[in-house]
Amino acid sequence: MKIKDMELYIHIPFCRKKCNYCDFCSFPSSKGQVEAYIAQLESEIRAWGESLPGRKISTVFIGGGTPSLLNAGQIRHLMQTVRDSFQVEKKAEITMEANPGTVSFDRLKGYLEAGVSRLSFGLQSMQEEELQYLGRIHSREDFLSGFEAARAAGFQNISVDLMSGIPKQTMESFEDTLRKTAKLGPEHISAYSLIIEDGTPFAEDENLEELLPSEEDDVRMYEMTEKILEEYGYHKYEISNYSKPGYECRHNLGYWSRIPYLGVGLNAASYLEEKRFQQTESMKEYLDQKNFLRYFEEARPLSWEEQVEEFMFLGLRRTAGVKETEFEECFGRSMESVYGPVIEKAEKGGWIKRNPDQIALTQQGILFSNQVLSEFLLSE
Question: Is the pTM of this model over 0.70?
């Protein structure tokens, strides 16, 4: 393989209790299953290290599930396996997701000593009633004590996930959540709108719709998020992500920039050598797996058209947008020759703004991003 630099995603599927909105690959587990999974996960990491010798890892993201269910010793051993298998940059960004209901000072201190440099707390809301409706296992006080413990442990780069469009949420309650979170001063805040996914308890709740904020309020919440967070020194660098200067999530920026990444663990997705592929979501199949490269070997490379579409879809999520010179370097054609009429239509509609060598979504374009981005499909 020709990959030189890449990112690494490690999936930990375990959680104490699945949230009412969650359709991720996650579930409760036994101690024995966790230990068997970690052993297999480390085998997969070593196998990829042998197939990608000398490859440099710029970022690591340990996601879930609830990775903070693992103790510090398990995370330390996992990260040592990564370092033994790959060249990890000296200043690599190493992020770990944490549920506020599962952390303590000692555990957080251990994560930091294991090499985790960035902590991502899944708060979602500061309102107890909203947390309960979401099915979260933590309270507001759990988060506040967890955040304080993370600072005391030495974490200087903390991200907090928030959610709008929650059942029973109001403009006032969401503003309260935004301001209380921002006053704590995390370096990064991700603010997502709730999506009702098939197969979740929310999707099966016949009374849910009447409890959700209106579409108008959902839009107002999005607009309010940027306005309020700006007051506290955050800037929006992607449709749903805000940071203090210099604290943008490098792992996610790499994803939106089509930097190659390897995903290991149950159901983890990867992007290597213009191939997109995914691990099995069957725990039994995963634990029995011998050929960890099987899904890579079976995947077909993306077509030229698919690569072009991804360049636009992912790049336009960033507030900086996409560069026309970079497009031409990647694909051997000018952006104008491929998308001229589409760009002209979107510009006239007020959906995109065009600067020398660059196009980006406007605020209106962001609000209707799904519709705007669909215009850049080449296969239709």
Answer: yes
